[in-house]
Design a protein that fits this description.
Elements (H helix, E strand, L loop, with lengths): L6 E7 L4 E4 L6 E15 L2 E14 L1 H7 L7 E15 L2 E15 L13 E4 L36
Parallel strand pairs: 4-6
Antiparallel strand pairs: 1-3, 1-5, 2-3, 3-4, 5-6, 6-7
Length: 158
């Protein structure tokens, strides 16, 4: 089976996004971080715990999004985990971040009253909001006849 490196997060920006350009190729790099909350019960009370994730977007996509990525804005991010490694003062350092493929702007922090509409910015249309599927009348059971059992002649190799 092939390895999978796929991340989907929904959270809120912890500060406004930063837009920078590389010196040699003038490529746009947009960086921001989001807080993703998880709720769990501790004794008799619900406790919120936040996890923080750094997000990086390259190119025109980042330039376009930069003006919309404001502190408190809720976003959905689809991308891949990446790790940078470098040496600093004789010690190895590393940083894990999400390299975004698709960003969807969700609700929150908007001055033009459009904050509740989702807007998608990305390189593909694979990451879309979908309506929940209706429940089939047969309770989820297959209507096709059962497949015959498979008879393996060889033993499992481990």
């Amino acid at each position: 089976m092939a390895d999978v490196n796929q991340v989907v997060l929904i959270g809120r920006l912890t500060k406004d996004a930063e837009l920078k350009y590389t010196t040699n190729t003038n490529l746009a790099i947009t960086r921001f971080s989001i807080a993703v909350n998880a709720r769990r019960k501790q004794e008799d009370q619900w406790v919120d715990e936040a996890s923080f994730f750094d997000i990086t977007i390259f190119g025109k996509q980042g330039e376009t999004l930069h003006n919309y990525l404001q502190k408190g804005k809720q976003v959905a991010v689809e991308g891949q985990l990446r790790q940078d490694r470098w040496e600093q003062d004789g010690q190895m350092r590393s940083r894990v971040y999400v390299l975004a493929d698709n960003i969807m702007l969700l609700g929150g922090v908007s001055n033009d009253h459009t904050g509740d509409r989702g807007t998608s910015f990305g390189q593909s249309n694979d990451f879309k909001q979908q309506a929940p599927a209706s429940r089939p009348k047969n309770g989820g059971r297959s209507t096709s006849p059962m497949a015959p059992p498979v008879d393996f002649e060889d033993d499992i190799p481990f």
